[in-house]
């Protein structure tokens, strides 16, 4: 990787589990220095793609290039070096519950660098300030809100000054204000640091706010790749349904429910609660 913000080139990639493909023949170039959003319905294979790009899952065919390096043919040691230039924000922040925020964020520096404790403290504090958590260094993950955990995960993903940042569903489970703040933070990181950012999401508002490039997956294939403007203008029926948030009509009223005797379904609490119908 020579440029500090490399392209990610995906060529004829097939991903799946146990010999069964989930998405076949993915071809895309996620632009260096930009934000790419991988969009698609739940269960379509977005996280699986991320795991394949990180070599956490074996690909079934094809190639992935980070900059000029084909990660599938790279020797183990070279890939370990490359991985140190990649930051990952996992869906739940993936913080270690037994460590406080400072130690969670310091962990990659302690494992992979020869920095002295004072230097580590300086970097950790700077990265926690970046995400607005500098006052929470002593907090443990279970003492943080969902949004704070995401930001803490982002601080840890950023701690080694990565060239590539992957975020899996960074706004899921957040309210609209926290989601918008996280989007702003990602845009700020893009502006301030030369980085290729890849965000896996099914949040359309977030995609509209941050994407330079969009890859839409679904039905076992690539449904779209290109700019968000051309995606929003598409007249493809399935993509429109997704973009306009229209579900398939399900005839749920026709499904008959089994009729069971309530006295069997529930504990007899009338003596304890009184007869609700009579009160
Ligand atoms: N370890 C696994 N072994 C076998 N199948 C798996 C495994 N992990 C995921 N799958 C299957 O792969 C498919 C894609 O899952 P994946 O988690 O990549 O979807 P996703 O697009 O990230 O969904 P979501 O938006 O809900 O996070 C699903 O059908 C899922 O059941
Ligand atoms: Mg997922």
Provide key terms for this protein.
279 residues, alpha/beta, Rossmann fold, six-stranded mixed beta sheet, four-stranded antiparallel beta sheet, 11 helices, 10 strands, 35% helix, globular, binds adenosine-5'-triphosphate, binds magnesium ion
Spatial arrangement of strands, main beta sheet: 6-7-8-3-9-10
Which CATH architecture of the domain at 1-85 and 162-170 and 196-245 is right? 3-Layer(aba) Sandwich
CATH class of the domain at 1-85 and 162-170 and 196-245: Alpha Beta
Estimated helix fraction: 25-40%
Biggest sheet character: 6 strands, mixed
What is the CATH homology-level superfamily of the domain at 1-85 and 162-170 and 196-245? Answer: P-loop containing nucleotide triphosphate hydrolases
Contiguous helical run count: 11
| CATH topology descriptor of the domain at 1-85 and 162-170 and 196-245 | Rossmann fold
Q: Hetero groups bound?
A: adenosine-5'-triphosphate, magnesium ion
N- to C-terminal distance? 73 Å
Could you report the average pLDDT, rounded to the nearest whole number?
89
DSSP strand tally: 10
Rounded Rg: 23 Å
In brief:
With 279 residues, the chain is of the alpha/beta class. It has eleven helices and ten strands. A hairpin with a 2-residue loop joins strand 4 and strand 5 (69-70).
How would you describe what is shown here?
The protein has eleven helices and ten strands. It has 279 residues and is of the alpha/beta class. It has a domain at 1-85 and 162-170 and 196-245: Rossmann fold (3-Layer(aba) Sandwich). The strands form two sheets. It has a six-stranded mixed β-sheet, with helices on both faces. A four-stranded antiparallel β-sheet has the order 2-1-4-5, with helices on one face. Strand 7, helix 6 (176-192) and strand 8 (196-201) form a beta-alpha-beta unit. Helix 3 (101-112) crosses helix 4, helix 3 (101-112) runs parallel beside helix 5 (146-158) and helix 4 packs across helix 5 (146-158). The longest helix has 17 residues, at 176-192. The chain is globular. The termini are far apart. The mean pLDDT is 89.
